[in-house]
Write a structure and sequence with these properties.
The chain is an alpha+beta fold. It has helices spanning 2-16, 29-41, 45-56, 61-154, 173-176, 186-199, 218-238, 263-269, and strands spanning 159-163, 166-172, 206-211, 246-252, 271-276. Helix 7 (218-238) links the parallel strand 3 and strand 4.
């Protein structure tokens, strides 16, 4: 049976006209396949033996066996090579995945670090704002206390009230000036000294308003009220009130607080008001 099989194969080889050139017999397909697969899989011992057997005796049944063996080993080698390639591909994919995960992790850590830095910066800014707000509240509380103390002091020498403008200190015109004049009396200076001493350091904007009764012309009273307001303002500045915090306005007879039809009413209307405005936060 073995010899019959060999004879069939040899006959097939003969019929196929296996020759490389000029009538030389060509190797069997198994050997050709083995050679091709050898080149692909790069394995050689079995193929070398098959090639040698073919060169020595192409009709020897062992030649076919060696060719088949070479083919099988080439197939196995190719399969192993494919397996190794698949493993390498898997390892490369794994490495790329690890690299990607490492890159993403580093990026996430970087973003986390940046976010933490931003949070810390925001927290620091918030703490600074809270501290500044607390300090501002404390300053306002201290200022309110000082202003209350000042109010208590001023109330002993002048009329003090609160309205929408702020704290209003009212001094009657007869106390401050001679009739029809804007020169401060000595007693007026003493009172203004105490008022200035009480208000220094309060950092409150102030406006000095001059008022008259309606005796005389309107223009004359407007001029007189302005000059009296200027005189009080300038004196307070000379006693330490910051010049940029205090201004003067003459109102003349336009804002009476009493009826000008009586002596008492006109006396009440002749006055100077020092308005201490609320401090803007």
């Amino acid at each position: 049976m073995k010899w019959s099989h060999a004879a069939v194969i040899v006959g097939a080889l003969a019929i196929a006209g296996l020759s490389a050139c000029g009538g030389e017999r060509l190797p069997p397909k198994a050997l050709s396949d083995a050679r091709d697969e050898f080149h692909r899989a790069k394995t050689g011992m079995a193929l070398q033996r098959a090639n040698q057997a073919w060169s020595d005796d192409p009709d020897d049944p062992n030649t076919i066996d060696l060719a088949i063996v070479a083919q099988r080993k080439a197939q196995i080698a190719e399969a192993e090579a494919q397996t190794m390639k698949s493993q390498r591909d898997a390892e490369e994919a794994k490495r790329q995945l690890q690299d990607l995960m490492s890159t993403q992790l580093q990026s996430a850590r970087g973003q986390l670090t940046q976010t933490k830095a931003q949070l810390n910066q925001t927290q620091s800014a918030l703490e600074a704002e809270q501290k500044a707000a607390a300090e501002q509240r404390q300053r306002l509380e201290d200022l309110e206390k000082k202003l209350k103390d000042a109010r208590d002091t001023i109330a002993k020498i002048a009329a003090v009230k609160d309205d929408e403008r702020g704290m209003v200190i009212t001094l009657q015109g007869e106390v401050l000036f001679p009739t029809g004049k804007w020169d401060l009396k000595a007693g007026a200076m003493a009172k203004l000294d105490q008022i200035a001493q009480a208000l220094i350091g309060k950092e409150q904007p102030m406006v000095v308003f001059g008022h008259t009764d309606n005796t005389g012309t309107h223009d004359m009273n407007m001029d007189l009220s302005q000059k009296r307001a200027n005189a009080v303002r300038d004196y307070l500045v000379s006693r330490g009130i910051p010049q940029d915090l205090i201004s003067a306005q003459g109102k003349g007879p336009d804002v009476p607080i009493s009826d000008n039809g009586s002596i008492e009413g006109r006396a009440s209307n002749r006055r100077v008001e020092i308005v201490v405005q609320p401090k803007k936060s």
